[in-house]
TrEMBL record:
Belongs to the plant self-incompatibility (S1) protein family. Residues 1-23 form the signal peptide. Coiled coil: none annotated. It is found in: Secreted. It comes from the Eukaryota. Its main location: secreted. Keywords: Secreted, Self-incompatibility, Signal. One of its GO terms (cellular component) is extracellular region. GO terms for biological process: rejection of self pollen. Pfam families: Self-incomp_S1 (PF05938). This is S-protein homolog. InterPro entries: Self-incomp_S1 (IPR010264).
């Protein structure tokens, strides 16, 4: 595509606005199938999936948001999963965060952070998290193990 120089910044601005607008149309995909791709598309859609792995018969109550999106308060039965999709924003600013109600408190976690999920060997196009009582663990696409684990920080109550 040939774009005259004086239109280039306008073109980029339009691209930017379009991309940002896209992020507002993130749609939850209830219990979508678990398939993992292995090719990273920087501008492709990202899927974030969470799985209730609390154990026993505990339901997982959670609430996920970004600056533009609010998926509302939800609940997952044991072993069940829920996911949403979105387009990454330019300049690595995409951030989705969730709060989780566990037996011993309520915790928040950044379920998708651009700089964490697109860095080095740790990138994910489909970012699958098991939510455990000890913390969230993400699937490593290469080893197929839920080995990228974090500990819960301070409880909100
Ligand atoms: C706890 O805090 C550390 C340091 O800020 C952060 O890297 C980690 O993701 C946090 N864990 C959770 C589960 O939020």
């Amino acid at each position: 595509m040939d774009i005259p120089k004086r239109y280039l910044s306008l073109f980029l601005l339009t691209m930017f606005i379009t991309t940002n607008a896209d992020a507002k149309h993130s749609v939850p995909v209830p219990n979508g199938p678990s398939t993992t791709g292995s090719v990273f598309h920087p501008f492709g859609k990202i899927t974030v999936e969470i799985i209730n792995d609390l154990g026993n018969t505990l339901a997982l109550k959670y609430h996920c948001k970004s600056k533009e999106d609010d998926f509302g308060k939800r609940s997952l039965q044991p072993g069940k999963s829920w996911s949403f999709k979105f387009h990454r924003q330019f300049f690595g600013r995409t951030l989705f965060y969730c709060s989780f109600v566990l037996p011993n408190g309520r915790y928040t976690f950044n379920i998708y952070e651009d700089h964490r999920e697109s860095a080095g060997d740790n990138w994910c196009q489909k970012c699958v998290w098991k939510i455990r009582q000890t913390g969230p663990c993400r699937l490593n696409d290469v080893t197929k193990q839920f080995a990228i684990c974090y500990s819960w920080n301070k409880s909100l109550y």
